[in-house]
Fold these 2 entries.
Entry 1:
Amino acid sequence: MDRASLIGPNELSIIPKETVSNILGPKGLPRGPYYDTRKHEEGTSLDGIKEYTVHAVRRRPWARGMNSTAMKYYEGVIKEETANLIHGLRERKSKEVDISAWMSFFSFDAMGRMSFSYDLRMLKDGRDSHGLSQQIENGLIEAAWISHVQWLVPFLKYIPSASKSWEEIKAVGERLVRRRAQDGSIHPDIFYYLMNEDGQEITKPVIEVCAIDGMLAIIAGSDTSATTLSHLWYYLLSNSACFNQLRSEVDEVFPLGEDPLNDLSKLGTMSYLNACINEVLRLYPPVLAALQRRVEPDRGGVMVGDHLIPPETQVSLYAYAIHRDPSHFWPIPDQFWPDRWLSQEEYTLPSGDRIASVITDHEVFIPFSAGPMGCVGKNVAMAEMRAVVSTVVQQFDMTVANQSNLAKWEEDIREVFVTSRGTLPVVLKPRHS
Ligand code: HEM
């Protein structure tokens, strides 16, 4: 098969177009053994459940937690936390700040409140006093190697410190969930739905199982958005023409004095803002590892194009590779060029050359995965990113504090299932007092 590579004795990485629907769609394949690290003695977190029917039942409360009533509450949180971000950055005006770290402070604080009604206070304190970023990174580095030797998972408890960091981050999630269960909440946060406080499920969930999803909420709900936002600042700092075009759109829709946070729905209609976010999700999807699936032994294989993938083969989809394939995105698939997402009669490339058309294949754009096991938090993530980018661009001029960090940014990126990233020091100058 063209555009397929053998990446293990029994594992294929494939990128043809049909992959997405055949493998990730509703009649696709169950998750592969890579996800065994999501299995704990108390139960399995949502993102580790392999069987479609079991997964669908566990996903129900998560889906309710993303309904329009829930979204209203999250939008309120996003507005307040974006305002806290702007306040924190203003206090540090004209000083060097690591914008990548501040994106984490924002997304952790927003996630803490949206998931557990808990204020982690990183934006107010201007630091990650809980050490969550480092804990997550350590835990994910451990989970990444363990995921490749899944047969070891049942024995890890007998090997001192083998999965210490992974266990620690699980414990943080558990603590937050147990505190939330004890205190209750006046807000319809995500755990309001997961703990069946809305009374929609017949059986009350077991708190131990519920607590496992606490870790998922922390990692899935914060690290991913923070990474995307950090990559976006990197690209905008490296491409002043793109920054200026984005600034023009923001200024046109929200002239200085008009707060973008007053109309989050308008942000969804801003074509260049959304093109920039899509473009960064295309080049660096924050889940850098493969979405691994496995052809069941009794299925008789699965067709991708003209090719049969035999039973018991693991099939891995790397969004990073799929998004950079020239048959899916063309031209300059490895370059940041938001224009490819705009509908235009003619396109001007960064080189100045003009072309009549582009290939932008929305069907294979899978930063959030796709199908019944795809990201449940996509709308929340998009709302967060639009709010932060538009407000920061409206409020500040941003310059690189240290060119060498900018040059090293891509070098420092590591796959740890999601993304480990370096620092990005910048200086912010408010556009008005
Ligand atoms: C830019 C931001 C985000 C990106 C790119 C992203 C991407 C993804 C991807 C690729 C998956 C599938 C992972 C897999 O199957 O291995 C996933 C799953 C998931 N995401 Fe996100 N995510 C983002 C933000 C969020 C947010 C903000 C939340 C919560 C509010 C969230 C909650 C989840 C959950 C619960 C799952 C597991 C879904 C399931 O197994 O049914 N994500 N995400």
Note: The pocket of protoporphyrin IX containing FE is lined by residues 46-47, 59, 62, 216, 220-221, 224-225, 228, 286-287, 291, 367-369, 373, 375-377, 380-381 (CB under 6 Å).
Entry 2:
Amino acid sequence: MLKRIVLIILTPIIFVISWLLLARIVRHFYKFPMPEFMADFITNPGRLKMQPPGETAVRHGIQPGMTVLDIGPGNGTYTIAAARQVGPEGKLFAIDIEPRMIERVQKNAAAAGVGNIEARVADVYDMPFDDRTFDVITMIAVLGEIPEPDRALAECHRVLQLDGTLAISEIMVDPDSKRPSTLRREVEAAGFQMKEKVGNWLIYSMLFGKKR
Ligand SMILES: C[S@@+](CC[C@H](N)C(=O)[O-])C[C@H]1O[C@@H](n2cnc3c(N)ncnc32)[C@H](O)[C@@H]1O
């Protein structure tokens, strides 16, 4: 009986760990943007409880009146929370390489009655914004699926204001997620310095400013 209970508990745990390990190995060699049909799957109730969108916006240092860029918004759940945080005096821009993600952001923002989001199709390697435009740039579960993070980070450096914040959040069950030490090394090599790290081993956010 005891053996059966142990098996019932262990089987799903071993299955999930094996799946994540396999996914990590595959993603290490083949990087591509998350397929559009996964957008709702990754904003499941469990994740939203662990990484609440409103709380994430506050953690990222987003304040009323700011001009903020969300890179890789997916279905826009975190974008909408950030747009609510900047309020009517602020502006939220979102860019995604996948046009159907941008359609989702526009549709979901309209359904939520949020009117201060401008969502465009663009590649993080070549963003359609002037130098030093943004107070805050956010990337949530995005950097790990970008094949050349150094190019993406150089673009972020260009469009971030001198005293702006680059806020990156990772969730370790994402097969593309980066360990905190790896993330810090990569971002600091691109001309940033870490200002703050919040969270725990499962979910964390790192805030960076431009190196002076
Ligand atoms: C895993 S999803 C994260 C979605 C959302 N931030 C979240 O946490 O729910 C990654 C997103 O990054 C976008 N993306 C991937 N490569 C990109 C690139 N080179 N430029 C812009 N967006 C990109 C994908 O299309 C996708 O919407």
Note: Residues 31-210 form a domain with the Rossmann fold fold (CATH 3.40.50.150).
